[in-house]
Design goal:
about 170 residues, alpha/beta, GMP Synthetase, Chain A, domain 3, 2 domains, 4-stranded mixed β-sheet, 7 strands, binds zinc ion
Length: about 170
């Protein structure tokens, strides 16, 4: 507590604080970088944190909301509410180039196509090559539309001979 007793927060400083909230599945990415954090508004002394799910029914969203609460409370902010919006829907376009780069460094291919098209690829056998995050080769093969979580697809790189995951949504 400072002399005034109350710290003054602005929507901008709240956004900075929320950088501490990471995607539970990809801990190198903050919800801001991921594009999950849409907006922070201040209405009648109450902060409104607006988020959009990356994947409908994504179990990570619950963890993200819990993390937002604990980060806010850690900073002594209690006058806030979290609002989840579904429109406009999250698309991979919301992910910044920096975020994509961090994903690659983490060993996950950035999103390139939807679940529907992944399933089509598996059924048709026609492959849209995804670049391997390890060696940069496009000699890769989709092995499963679902990786370790519903938000990821599994690929295999024929060049460096190792499996890798691709972050995908919608
Ligand atoms: Zn490779």
């Amino acid at each position: 507590m400072n002399a005034a007793g109350i710290k003054s927060f602005t929507p901008e400083s709240i956004r900075t604080i929320l950088q501490e909230v990471k995607d539970p599945e990809v801990p190198v990415l903050s919800i801001e970088e991921l594009g999950v954090l849409c907006d922070v508004k201040l209405t009648d002394g109450q902060f409104e944190i607006i988020i959009t799910p990356t994947y409908s029914g994504c179990p990570a969203m619950h963890a993200i909301m819990e993390d937002i609460k604990s980060v806010m409370e850690k900073h002594g902010i209690h006058n806030f509410q979290i609002k989840m919006i579904y429109s406009p829907a999250w698309t991979t376009d919301r992910m910044s180039e920096t975020a994509r780069e961090k994903l690659r460094e983490y060993g996950i291919a950035p999103p390139s196509q939807s679940t529907t098209s992944h399933l089509e690829v598996l059924h048709s056998g026609k492959s849209k090559p995804v670049t391997c995050p390890y060696c940069g080769s496009t000699e890769t093969k989709l092995t499963s539309a679902f990786g370790s979580t519903a938000c990821k697809a599994l690929h295999y790189c024929n060049h460096c001979r190792q499996p890798f995951e691709e972050f995908k949504c919608h």
